[in-house]
Amino acid sequence: MLESRTIWKKASWQVPVLVILSAVVALAVNALRTDRLPLVGDWSVAARITTATGERMDISLAEAQKLFSSNTVVFIDARPTEDYSQGHIQGAHSLPWNDVDQKFMSVTQELELETPIITYCDGETCELSYNLALFLREAGFLNTRVLVNGWKLWQQSGLPVASGTPPGQP
């Protein structure tokens, strides 16, 4: 019994020392890396929407609204066609991420590569608009941004919306 107590007494100080020592070694190794991992960062959904080079692709609702008002941007809805038909940002094109291979050319054929584009879907964790924005950038539309949770934010702000099927579809 006495031996068991001694073992637990030893372990009670050894475990915290090992944890602290591990943390010190990890921090030292990170400091020596050329591609250090950030210890503090912005882990929001919007901040995670970046290009391979680390450029943020998100756009604020205020910025998107300003571009909408100046009529200098094209909105592209990445949600399924049924969702688009039930309601979308006024003037937005429908390019569902799941149908991008079939519909890409018809939706983008009249757009210049320099055209500012904002993709959106619904829900803070919806990745359809992010995937679509990356696809569009790879296709040459480098001025493409993502309005995170776009449909919900747009509706809640009372901004112009429309409903109906996309042009060219029954």
**What structural category characterises the helix and strand content?**
alpha/beta
Task: Please indicate the percent range of residues in DSSP E strands (runs of 2 or more).
Answer: 5-15%
What kind of assembly state do the chains in view correspond to?
single chain
Shape: elongated
Instruction: Write down the Rg.
Output: 24 Å
On the 0 to 100 scale, the average pLDDT is 90
Report low-confidence residues grouped into runs of 5 or more: none
Number of helices: 7
Number of strands: 6
Throw out a few tags for this protein.
alpha/beta, four-stranded parallel sheet, 170 residues, elongated, 7 helices, two-stranded antiparallel ribbon, single chain
Describe the SSE topology:
Elements: H1 2-32, H2 45-48, H3 61-69, E1 74-77, H4 81-86, E2 88-89, E3 93-94, H5 100-108, E4 117-120, H6 128-138, E5 144-147, H7 150-156, E6 161-162
Parallel strand pairs: 1-3, 1-4, 4-5
Antiparallel strand pairs: 2-6
